[in-house]
């Protein structure tokens, strides 16, 4: 639709339409006082610049009315809508409801262009393609083809599609948490575990205040570095649900993510059991004190633990909002319990507490407890191993990343602040308890110092108590002996018990939520196909109810087993393995130097992250060496499994980035090294066209390049450039994917050119990279050369000349049936389409069965029967074997069989090498490489060389010596002494008949006629040319006779390719040579190297 600039367009609009969106005109010269006096600042959605620099306009939408404007623009031009809005242009004001600069399709930058398809945060918009803004615009067409499903300039999506996305967003709009409730609260609750109340005092007693703080600091160093790495990864792009699994898998790839995700989810599931059992043990201790045991301690733990897990499951299943409320309540209880302890340290101690070692803050106690006093069997690392699990839990917030409003902001802020707060609390409790309570106390109020008694010099002795007998017999109180020190010190003991309940239940609840969330994300990615059942979510929050049930079953199983002391070290190591990989992910992404690594959280360092990863691995062995070994074995097994399965995902991981950097570095490093004959390998350009159209040519080339040399499948698109480039670009990825699917280690390259020879010339010159450049051209023999047009023959022979000009070797491959199976593939595609149409027709008939009469149905079936379709069998990897189930008359069955002959294992036989001319050794090297392959290893090399009749034995010995020096094994050597004999008359007659249609026969005509014929048909074979190279023609015919005699039963013949001297041998004569040379033979490789050594006998 053309642009309408009439002056009265806007006047046509109804007044009621102005209420739908507002247009505020602002003159920079302050000509409009109304605009200047507007107190409400307008919302800028789009800004357009008209032809007059003095004016501009603003558009603001009223709520919910953006769709009116969405229908307003198409392809950068203003169009008439139902509301009759048009462009208005006058002498003073110009309105262009477009991007800056009218009559443009170019889009302004907008976030919607960068969303993933199906993004829940907003609809994905499609910017105009480069083709749409680059190609010439058709006359009288305002809307470019294919752009009707989008609004140009990124102004949103068409109304219907936008409404659908809004409905999707509403459906998925569950409860989302901020950084406090979603991350800070969860991390604090998970870090503050039961260890704070019942083990920290013992750690201070063993290690002392000094080493105790160092132990806390070392543990926090590990978690803080991990927190920094987590923050960096979480701010490098949008974070979905899955927590640690999501961060690791998107950074290091599915192999690492899939392995750690499974054990991390399992670790969280078992952690539920650990925390619940901790809660149950505390309850059982209270029951013992009140003599209210139900059965026995073990069974009571099972009963209470089972009931607790069921209650926690109910809270979790009720929804994240209920679970979050429960967490807040538990945090309040926990904070009150911690505050209760600090208050208790300043409340004056009574005699009972003093007898148990609590004397309030005393400098003498602080000094005495500052140094370590390890008991037998304990040391720094053993105490550290006991404390470290108390510092974990930093991923509690990240694990519910899918339920956070803004994970990129919430995870760094909440995680790091939680680490800081909990660290201050741990250090504060450690110092306070170390300054108030002595290491050993009897609990006997009568153990006071009486005047005249000898004092042992301890802090308690100076404070009036004698606990010296604790040196000879075990005592029940003090830091070293009493796990309930915090209850004793606190202002109100039961609050500490409540704190223990809060710590255990909150950690259990966090783990019960984390495990299903992580597991659901893992299952959604379909890395383990057997677990796809657990990917389904329910409700607005996409709750993983199936994952909750699985976690519940695992937790119940371990509660009933009640052997958590054995499994606990493994679980701790599972968490540490996750921390190690998160740190390594951050290091790896930084080291790969990918431009896509741009974390918004800049407080990190790649080497610090690497140190953190190493530290995590070291801590794993410190905690429990056998548990660390088990963790590594499980992770390695899962890594191998995922690598073997090769999930079809592409997340742009740093592993990919590093692979690219490594390949680039190696390629650059390779350019600094001079080529050496010992490192020569065939690096081939194969003119296959589409790789699936000439599979046999690709297979034989791949046989001697696989794992040793470069192989590039090349295709030349000839024709109008616009059409060729479009076709080439559209098929590039598909054809490379075909190579990967069929496990062919090769690249695909294509060019668009005016003629076939120009395209190949471009490929020969520009293909490859540095030292990895092609040195051999592989082409199929042109079987239809006698029916081909002149330009086709000129191009075919011309590319051989071009290859030799560029000093590139040439290999021409001939098989009896030819290589091109494109017609077969076309038949297959057509039959598949017909089969789909038949199935669609049957479905239509079935749907309309109730409406149509029997006659109509019979008529439809009769029409379908005329298609004569046979249902194809399932596809193989090559996509060729399916043809065998179709009608034989529709294609050449022998051609299909021939196209797969090099895929099969070659039985016992021979590869006959006719090394007639020394080309540097390529004619010998290629068959030798073939014998190293699994499919050709049963074939022996037979070497045929030309020689003198009277020196056959001497030359055989010389050749055997040369091959031995080359270390090439051979079965036989044959010296052919009669190569230069004339061929028999029948063979020569066949050759003459072959070239007869292409001869000029100028000697039979007068001079004037002969000259005229030469000018009109310069490509024909002249009598002069034929006579001049008659001996060479005799040789080609004679060689065919010898090949028929000696190599008719060979599996493969490798033969020196004759070279046509430029300007001396016409193209048609050269084609006749190749024809007569390889006629009626097994598969033949005509090989000619570039006459540079590719073999050496020097070490």
Descriptive account of the structure:
Helix content is 50%, strand content 7%. It is elongated and about 145 Å long. Mean pLDDT is 79; it is low at 1-99, 139-172 and 854-891. The chain is α/β, with parallel strands linked by helices. Strands 7-6-5-8-9-14-13-10-11-12 form a ten-stranded mixed sheet, sandwiched between helices. A two-stranded antiparallel sheet has the order 1-2. The longest helix is centred in the first third of the chain and has 36 residues, at 254-289. The chain folds into three domains: 179-645, Up-down Bundle (Amino acid/polyamine transporter I); 673-823, HUPs (Rossmann fold), CATH 3.40.50; 909-1088, no CATH class. It has 37 helices and 14 strands. Strand 6, helix 25 (721-741) and strand 7 form a beta-alpha-beta unit.
């Amino acid at each position: 639709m053309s642009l309408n600039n009439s002056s009265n367009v806007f006047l046509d609009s109804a007044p009621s339409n102005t209420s739908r969106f507002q247009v505020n005109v602002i003159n920079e010269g302050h000509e409009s006082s109304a605009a200047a006096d507007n107190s409400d600042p307008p919302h800028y959605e789009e800004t357009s610049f008209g032809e007059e620099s003095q004016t501009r306009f603003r558009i603001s939408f009223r709520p919910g009315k953006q769709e009116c404007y969405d229908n307003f623009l198409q392809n950068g031009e203003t169009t008439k809508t139902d509301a009759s809005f048009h462009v208005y242009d006058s002498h003073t004001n110009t309105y262009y409801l477009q991007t800056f600069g009218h009559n443009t399709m170019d889009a302004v930058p907008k976030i919607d262009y960068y969303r993933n398809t199906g993004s829940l945060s907003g609809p994905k918009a499609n910017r105009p393609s480069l083709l749409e803004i680059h190609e010439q615009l058709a006359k009288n067409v305002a809307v470019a083809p294919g752009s009707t499903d989008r609004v140009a300039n990124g102004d949103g999506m068409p109304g219907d599609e936008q409404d659908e996305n809004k409905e999707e967003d509403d459906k998925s709009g569950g409860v989302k948490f901020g950084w406090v409730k979603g991350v800070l609260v969860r991390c604090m609750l998970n870090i503050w575990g039961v260890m704070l109340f019942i083990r920290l005092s013992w750690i201070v007693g063993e290690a002392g205040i000094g080493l105790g703080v160092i132990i806390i600091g070392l543990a926090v160093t590990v978690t803080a570095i991990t927190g920094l790495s987590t923050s960096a990864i979480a701010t490098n792009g949008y974070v979905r649900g899955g927590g640690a699994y999501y961060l690791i898998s998107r950074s290091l790839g599915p192999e690492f993510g899939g392995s750690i995700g499974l054990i991390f989810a399992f670790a969280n599931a078992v952690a539920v059991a650990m925390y619940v059992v901790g809660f149950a043990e505390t309850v059982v201790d209270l029951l013992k004190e009140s003599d209210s045991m139900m059965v026995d301690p073990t069974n009571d733990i099972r009963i209470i633990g089972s009931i607790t897990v069921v209650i926690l499951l109910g809270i979790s299943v009720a929804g994240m909002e209920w679970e979050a409320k429960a967490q807040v309540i538990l945090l309040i209880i926990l904070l009150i319990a911690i505050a209760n302890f600090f208050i208790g340290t300043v409340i004056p101690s009574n005699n009972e507490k003093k007898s148990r070692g609590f004397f309030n803050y005393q400098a003498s106690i602080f000094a005495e407890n500052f140094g370590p006093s390890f008991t037998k069997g304990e040391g720094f690392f053993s105490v550290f191993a006991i404390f470290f699990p108390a510092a974990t839990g930093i991923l509690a917030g990240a694990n519910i990343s899918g339920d956070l409003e803004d994970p990129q902001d919430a995870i760094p802020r909440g995680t790091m602040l939680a680490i800081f707060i909990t660290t201050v609390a741990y250090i504060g409790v450690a110092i306070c308890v170390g300054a108030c309570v002595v290491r050993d106390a009897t609990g006997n109020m009568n153990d006071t110092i009486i005047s005249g008694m000898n004092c042992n010099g301890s802090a308690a002795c100076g404070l009036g108590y004698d606990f010296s007998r604790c040196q000879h017999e075990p005592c029940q109180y003090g830091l070293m002996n009493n796990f309930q020190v915090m209850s004793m010190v606190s202002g109100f003991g039961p609050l500490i018990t409540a704190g223990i309940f809060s710590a255990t239940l909150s950690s259990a609840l966090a783990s019960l939520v984390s495990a299903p969330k992580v597991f659901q994300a893992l299952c959604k990615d379909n890395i383990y196909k057997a677990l796809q059942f657990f990917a389904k979510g329910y409700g607005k929050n996409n709750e993983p109810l199936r994952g909750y049930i699985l976690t519940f079953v695992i937790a119940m199983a371990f509660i009933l087993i009640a052997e958590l002391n054995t499994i606990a070290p493994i679980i701790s190591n599972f968490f540490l393995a996750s921390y190690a990989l998160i740190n390594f992910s951050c290091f790896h992404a930084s080291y790969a130097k990918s431009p896509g690594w741009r974390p918004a959280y800049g407080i990190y360092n790649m080497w610090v992250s690497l140190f953190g990863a190493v530290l995590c691995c070291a801590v794993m062995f410190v905690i429990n060496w056998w548990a660390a070994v088990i963790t590594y074995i499980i992770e390695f097994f899962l890594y191998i499994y995922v690598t073997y399965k090769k999930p079809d995902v592409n997340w742009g991981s740093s592993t990919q980035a590093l692979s690219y950097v490594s390949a680039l570095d190696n390629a650059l490093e390779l350019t600094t090294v001079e080529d050496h004959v010992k490192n020569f390998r065939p690096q081939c350009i194969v003119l296959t066209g589409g790789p699936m159209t000439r599979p046999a040519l690709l297979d034989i080339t791949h046989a001697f390049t696989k794992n040793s040399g470069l192989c590039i499948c090349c295709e030349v698109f000839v024709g109008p450039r616009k059409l060729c480039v479009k076709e080439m670009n559209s098929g590039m990825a598909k054809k490379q994917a075909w190579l990967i699917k069929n496990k062919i280690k090769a690249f695909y390259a294509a060019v668009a050119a005016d003629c076939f020879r120009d395209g190949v010339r471009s490929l020969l010159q520009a293909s490859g990279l540095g030292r990895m450049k092609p040195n051999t051209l592989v082409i199929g023999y042109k079987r239809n050369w006698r029916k081909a047009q002149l330009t086709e023959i000129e191009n075919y022979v011309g590319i051989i000349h071009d290859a030799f000009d560029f000093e590139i070797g040439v290999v021409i491959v001939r098989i009896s049936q030819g290589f091109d199976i494109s017609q077969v593939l076309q038949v297959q595609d057509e039959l598949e389409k017909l089969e789909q149409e038949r199935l669609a027709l049957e479905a239509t008939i079935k749907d309309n069965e109730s409406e149509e009469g029997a006659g109509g149905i019979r008529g439809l079936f009769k029409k379908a029967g005329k298609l004569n379709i046979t249902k194809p069998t399932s596809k193989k990897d090559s996509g060729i074997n399916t043809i065998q189930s179709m009608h034989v008359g529709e294609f050449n069955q022998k051609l299909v069989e021939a196209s797969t002959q090099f895929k099969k294992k070659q039985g016992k036989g021979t590869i006959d090498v006719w090394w007639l001319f020394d080309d540097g050794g390529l004619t010998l090297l290629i068959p030798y490489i073939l014998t190293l392959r699994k499919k050709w290893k049963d074939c022996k090399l037979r070497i045929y060389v030309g020689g003198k009749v009277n020196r056959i034995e001497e030359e055989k010995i010389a050749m055997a010596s040369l091959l031995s020096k080359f270390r090439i094994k051979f079965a036989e050597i044959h010296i052919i002494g009669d190569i230069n004999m004339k061929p028999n008359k029948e063979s020569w007659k066949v050759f003459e008949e072959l070239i007869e249609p292409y001869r000029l026969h100028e000697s039979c005509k007068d001079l004037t006629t002969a000259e005229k014929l030469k000018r009109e048909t310069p490509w024909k074979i002249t009598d002069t040319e034929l006579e001049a190279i008659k001996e060479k023609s005799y040789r080609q015919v004679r060689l065919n006779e010898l090949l028929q005699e000696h190599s008719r039963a060979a599996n493969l013949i490798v033969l020196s390719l004759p070279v046509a001297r430029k300007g001396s041998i016409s193209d048609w004569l050269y084609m006749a040579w190749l024809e007569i040379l390889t006629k009626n033979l097994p598969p033949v490789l005509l090989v000619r190297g570039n006459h540079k050594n590719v073999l050496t006998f020097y070490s």
